[in-house]
Design a protein that fits this description.
Elements lengths: L2 H17 L5 H62 L8 H8 L12 H15 L6 H8 L3 H7 L3 H4 L2 H16 L1
Helix pairs in contact: 1-2, 2-4, 3-4
């Protein structure tokens, strides 16, 4: 509060005290002014504290997102390593081995997974596993849950047979829901 404003407020309080016939209006006005000042300072401190808490909460959320990202990255690297170790060295590996490798990717969880990231991880594991692209759509459909299943059920049967059509439908519909 500026000095002239405080002085003006002080005189207003003295006038009020005189009107109400308060004894010792100068002392009363001084105490009242100090009380108002303390309340303002207390409010300022509360707001500052609230801002600090919001910043800390944001930092914690960011740290949790980073931790989750690192966890997913480590899981992917582990799966990728396991897939590379599990790929048969024979030129004539059977489809059973390829499908078994695909089982190493967890089902899509709409509460945790981001569809873009999940599809990239799926494609990398499918490629690493040697799964033919012709089988990607059927493999992906077995891993989807929740809204993703509903989206795919709305896609025509012909479009469901191609991975690129399923991917496009999922990304398009989920992007609409975000907006």
């Amino acid at each position: 509060m500026a000095s002239s404003s405080r002085t003006q407020r002080f005189f207003e309080l003295i006038e009020f005290a005189k009107e109400k016939q308060i004894s010792k209006p100068d002392q009363w006005a001084e105490k009242q002014e100090e009380k108002e000042y303390q309340e303002q300072e207390s409010e300022k401190q509360r707001q500052d504290s609230e801002k600090r808490m919001q910043l800390e909460e944001k930092k914690l959320q960011d740290a949790e997102k980073q931790r989750q990202h690192e966890k997913e990255k480590m899981e992917f690297e582990k799966q990728n390593k396991e897939n590379k170790e599990s790929i048969p060295t024979q030129g004539h590996s059977n489809m059973f081995d390829k499908y078994r490798l695909m089982n190493k990717i967890s089902a899509f969880n709409e509460n945790i997974d981001n569809m873009d990231s999940y599809l990239i991880r799926f494609e990398e594991i499918a490629t690493t596993s040697g799964l033919p692209e012709a089988h990607w759509s059927s493999s992906l459909l077995t891993l989807l849950t929740g809204k993703a299943v509903n989206i795919c059920s709305q896609v025509s049967i012909n479009e469901r047979s191609t991975y690129s059509d399923i991917k496009e439908a999922l990304l398009r519909q989920l992007q609409k829901e975000i907006l």
